[in-house]
Amino acid sequence: MCQHTPRCPSADSPDREAAHVVAAYPEQGWSLLCNAVLLFEDTGELLPDGQIIAPHRPLAAATA
Asked: What's the predicted TM-score (pTM) here?
């Protein structure tokens, strides 16, 4: 899908979320990246092969 230079990371790369957004539906809570990954606002992902990546929000910092 990626037609720009430099090419976006592939869907199986650890940095796949760095790909360009080609369609955004914030009212529905998801975006389609140019590497065919569906990225959800809760940080979950659906990869093109059907694999699900669970949400991976950073943990809140402990307050002293």
From this structure: 0.80
CA angle, 5 then 10 then 15, to 5°: 95
Angstrom distance (rounded) from CA 15 to CA 12: 8
pLDDT over 70 (residue 63): no
- Sheet containing 45-46: give its strands across: 21-25, 30-33, 38-40, 45-46, 52-53
The continuous run of DSSP H or E covering 53 comes out as strand 52-53
> What DSSP letter does each residue of 20-52 carry, written as one string?
PEEEEETTTTEEEETTS-EEETTS-EE-TTS-E
